[in-house]
Recover the amino acids of this structure.
């Protein structure tokens, strides 16, 4: 069996590192296609090197651009690759333009398609939400990471036989690479930081970076908190350009340690040892949760609602610097309670690979029957559809 995996952004590289390895162990051939959505070395090639992901067979070099133009160029290029390779299934991850382009290309060519991280909803109409919903409704197999995601899909009427709760592959990655980061990353020493004595911030979502009032509020807020604890912010290249356009005062920027983008192992070390993480990234929210670090999400909603339980994550709409700073200080005073089972059993990649290997008209068992998942997880489909 041959699968074409479509990736294009940092979180997708991490997920592919887990799933591609599991596919190989299951005897499934994986053709890795990199759209080029993240195209500089720090955001792309470094992740492949650190996570020991095989080099993509195809690098489409699409780069940045407006959503419609970028997605259209990806769709055309991915279609060409699929026509050349004729895979049995296309595998897409997450909620980026690369995700939607891969899903549409597969649907137009009538190639079965599966979606890792299916069922996430923030219940807005931001580009990522549109990508998620459209991809889920044309997917043949939907790999839901959580029980909440299962319920969302059930509420939208997606047939139960297409949905499998596998757990979250990012949790697999956190377990697999945490010790690796301890052994090989010296980022704390390079930055002269001690564990639990700094705040880690990340910022990249369009609704924050493209809105100058929100962008200024976030920077003013974290700069205010930086009077209390050092704040380190690895800055996405696109965000750096928007910061320059927003003309944020130099005095504000000088109180924040702005870094170039970091590799996965360095980011893992900074996340593990932070006193708190402030972010607008869905992936970083989860990584904070996996590492037991309190988080403030710089948005009015989150698709990862499990992280809000026990005070582990707090939402703040970035309307003012004072509001952002107040929320972060409040979070610094909390003692959150983290669950250990919210995101699966740490073998999500294997469950996905097993389900895919059972797909097809000649399969003797259904994808759900191929899984070796605890009954409380595999029964989630039935409970979501009221068939307990």
């Amino acid at each position: 069996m041959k699968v074409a995996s479509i990736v294009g952004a940092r979180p997708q590289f991490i997920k592919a590192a887990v799933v591609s390895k599991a596919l190989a162990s299951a005897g499934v051939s994986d053709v890795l296609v990199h759209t080029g959505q993240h195209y500089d070395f720090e955001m792309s090639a470094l992740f492949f090197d650190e996570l020991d992901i095989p080099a993509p067979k195809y690098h489409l070099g699409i780069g940045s651009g407006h959503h419609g133009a970028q997605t259209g160029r990806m769709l055309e290029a991915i279609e060409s690759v699929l026509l050349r390779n004729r895979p049995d299934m296309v595998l897409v991850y997450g909620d980026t333009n690369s995700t939607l382009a891969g899903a549409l290309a597969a649907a137009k060519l009538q190639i079965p398609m599966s979606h890792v991280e299916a069922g996430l909803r923030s219940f807005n109409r931001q580009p990522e939400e549109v990508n998620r919903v459209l991809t889920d409704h044309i997917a043949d197999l939907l790999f839901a990471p959580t029980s909440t995601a299962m319920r969302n899909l059930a509420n939208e009427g997606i047939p139960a036989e297409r949905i499998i709760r596998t757990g979250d592959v990012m949790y697999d990655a956190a377990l697999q690479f945490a010790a690796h980061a301890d052994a090989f990353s010296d980022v704390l020493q390079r930055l002269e930081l001690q564990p639990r004595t700094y705040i880690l911030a990340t910022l990249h979502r369009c609704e924050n970076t493209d809105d100058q009032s929100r962008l200024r509020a976030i920077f003013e807020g974290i700069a205010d908190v930086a009077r209390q604890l050092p704040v380190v912010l690895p800055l996405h290249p696109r965000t750096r350009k928007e910061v320059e356009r927003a003309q944020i005062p130099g005095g504000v920027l000088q109180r924040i340690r702005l870094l170039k983008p970091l590799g996965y192992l360095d980011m893992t070390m900074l996340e593990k040892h932070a006193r708190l993480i402030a972010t607008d990234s869905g992936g970083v929210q989860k990584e904070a949760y996996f590492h037991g670090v309190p988080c403030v999400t710089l948005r009015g909603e989150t698709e990862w609602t499990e992280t809000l339980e026990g005070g582990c994550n707090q939402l703040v709409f970035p309307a003012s610097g004072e509001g952002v700073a107040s929320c972060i200080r409040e979070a610094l005073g909390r003692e959150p309670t983290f669950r250990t089972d919210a995101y699966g059993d740490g073998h999500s990649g294997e469950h996905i690979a097993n389900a895919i290997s059972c797909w097809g008209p000649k399969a003797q068992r259904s994808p759900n029957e191929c899984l070796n998942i605890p009954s409380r997880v595999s029964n989630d489909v039935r409970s979501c559809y009221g068939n307990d």
Summary: The chain is about 45% helix and 15% strand. Residues 374-383 have pLDDT under 50 and may be disordered.
